[in-house]
Amino acid sequence: MFSAFPLLRLPRLVLFDVFKSLNIAEKIKLSICSKKVSTQINNCRLYSQKVHVHLDMYSHKIEVFENGEDKFKIFNRSDSGTNTDPYKQQYQIGGCTVPVISYPEKISAFWKNHREGFLFVIRHLLKIFQCKFSTTINYYNNDLSQLIISKLFDLQLEFKMLNIYPDGSNHQNWLWKQKSSNFGLVEYLTIFSIVNPAFTPVFTSWPQNVTIMDSNWFTLKYLLACTSTTITLKGSRLGNKDVDEVLRKWKTGGFPNLQLLEIESRNITSFGATILGMNLRELNKLVIHSDDGSKKATIRHFYDRIEISVTPSE
Q: Which residues form the F-box domain (predicted)?
């Protein structure tokens, strides 16, 4: 007959080593057993830059990845109070007692309010790990995702990936105006088709890497102001004259962070204006240097796409 192991009676350092040896599912499931266990795990501070949290607001699901391999899912379900599932047990998540059904690689938590459920889970994860987040804002999850993202930006938390489908709604316009100053906290930002053409995004800061799908609205003025490391423009309207201005600005010290610029546009053609005094055939595979000699840019042309790759000069 087995007896319960007195885990919390272990010496502090030994206990912390036990916590650190657990996989992501074991860490999270143990952390919600009781306030006492949760406090001990929080004190252990299992912080790791390798913990990535994906928020799927459409499916009311939170996925936690560790080391890019281990994954644990947390489903936020609605609790009507009428479900008497015998497998439900009371657990502590983010300081709130909530009914939970536990499975080997996931849990289902039953909340009175989905929004509060997301925030409680996020709060709990942040006490254990140093997390980077990823999520998508679209018309399916507008209200919930905007609330969550607004809270995370207020906490100055980092995003691994943020995908946005701008729909021009008043709520999303407000979020953009209020929170675009936090885009510097985003590693990869992808902006998809703008549903409402009357909506014109204004950037008050830039992510590390930005991809604009259907970027016909992303003018040369936007590009000249962009400070991102990697810039990818799909379906652009930029042409030869625009690329010429970009390269001339880069040569004189502009785009100090730039490592890669990709522009996909039918307006970049062999029949338009020259770029740096050359046609596209002459420009392909050309290497140019910045005026101060510190950097070099390799230019490549592929049908309707031009790529500018920047590296330090040797």
A: 4-50
> Distance between CA 26 and CA 72 in Å, rounded?
9
Q: Is residue 217 part of a domain?
A: no
For residue 47, what pLDDT is reported? 64
Strand partners, 309: 260, 298
189 found inside a domain: no
Per DSSP, 216 falls in state G
User: In sequence order, what are the residues at sequence separation of 6 or more whose Cβ sits closer than 8 angstroms to the Cβ of residue 133?
Assistant: 52, 53, 54, 55, 152, 157, 158, 159, 160
CB-based contacts of 267: which residues, under 8 Å, 6+ apart? 236, 237, 238, 239, 240
Residues contacting 3, CB < 8 A, separation 6+: none
Nearest CA among 168, 304, 283, 303 for reference residue 236: 304
Q: What's the predicted TM-score (pTM) here?
A: 0.86
Taking the chain, what is the end-to-end CA distance rounded to the nearest angstrom? 70
Query: Reduced to 3 states, what is the DSSP secondary structure of residue 156?
Result: coil
User: Does residue 277 belong to any structural domain of this protein?
Assistant: yes
Residue 272 lies in a domain: yes
**How would DSSP label each residue in 77-125?**
EE--S----TT-EEEEETTEEEEEEEETTEEEEEES-HHHHHHHHHHHH
| Closest of 131, 124, 66, 119 to residue 92, by C-alpha | 124
User: What is the domain extent for residue 64?
Assistant: 10-130
Residue 1, pLDDT score: 44
| Cα–Cα nearest to 226, from 260, 192, 197 | 260
Residue 178 and residue 202 in contact, taking contact as beta carbons nearer than 8 Å: no
What is the C-alpha to C-alpha distance for residues 130 and 49, in angstroms, rounded to an integer? Answer: 6
